[in-house]
Design a protein that fits this description.
This protein is an alpha/beta fold. 37% of the residues lie in helices and 10% in strands. Bound molecules: zinc ion (ZN).
Length: 246
């Protein structure tokens, strides 16, 4: 965050910070480094260089705000990904700020320029949209007392109504996988149930699948013959006639 492309002195400051953090990681014997939420290509290049010198593979995530661009680079994001791979990043892609709906288009565009197997992503688990592509811009029109939101913004602590379901995050994983991306996950707002659903969506059965809900045992919606008949018969009273507006 100290990096400022208009102030060359910050190159050395950012480099020193990367060297310090990556140095600790090297001492502890890590397998690779994840450098995330980077918005400047110049800063990414410094991180790549420090990792190269440390002999560690780097997974690099760019954070793309509403503009859809990096803060110091006029070229496309796909081009920026290509540059980072050429400089020595092991994987490059996008993390944070965008939920599945507005993250996938970035990946699709980048996949036309670089091998999708060299792309990575971890999206926020929020319903970002074409009009509000980054979660900092989400506006909660249903909030009954919006004055309670700091600065009138749902970001970062009033985002609950925009939360993706496990099914949406699972679908995100499936689409990443189909695209050929092999390193994907969740960023802000992601819970363990999302991660489990993402693994299951691509055919995996992680240890946590043991706790995936078995709806056949639900007291009223389930199908298990041992469930009480009067509860199952009552189901139409709470599932019929949806009250969804419109
Ligand atoms: Zn995040």
């Amino acid at each position: 965050m100290v990096y400022d492309p208009d102030d060359p002195a910050t190159d050395a400051t950012a480099r020193a910070m990367f060297e310090e953090q990556i140095g600790w990681a090297v001492e502890e014997g890590v397998d690779y480094i994840v450098c995330e939420t980077i918005s400047h290509l110049g800063e990414a290049k410094i991180a790549i260089d420090v990792c190269n010198r440390a002999g560690l593979p780097l997974v690099l995530g760019f954070a793309i705000h509403r503009s859809g661009r990096l803060r110091d680079f006029d070229g496309s994001l796909a081009e920026a990904c290509r540059i980072c791979l050429d400089e020595g990043a092991h994987l490059v892609g996008f993390n944070c700020h965008r939920g599945p709906a507005t993250m996938l288009p970035l990946l699709r565009e980048a996949a036309e320029e670089v091998d999708p197997a060299r792309l990575c992503t971890w999206a926020v688990a929020y319903r970002t949209t074409a009009l509000q592509p980054a979660f900092g811009a989400l506006v909660d029109n249903a909030m009954p007392f919006p004055e309670a939101l700091p600065g009138g913004l749902s970001f970062p602590v009033g985002l609950d109504p925009f939360q993706c379901t496990r099914y949406e995050m699972g679908d995100f994983a499936r689409q990443c996988h189909e695209l050929g991306v092999r390193y994907f996950g969740g960023c802000c707002g992601t819970g363990p149930h999302h991660v489990r659903a993402m693994a299951e969506a691509i055919g995996r059965t992680p240890a946590a699948s043991r706790y995936s809900p078995d709806m056949s045992k639900h007291y009223a919606l389930g199908t298990d013959e041992r469930l009480l008949r009067h509860n199952r018969d009552y189901v139409p009273h709470f599932t019929a006639e949806p009250t969804r507006p419109g």
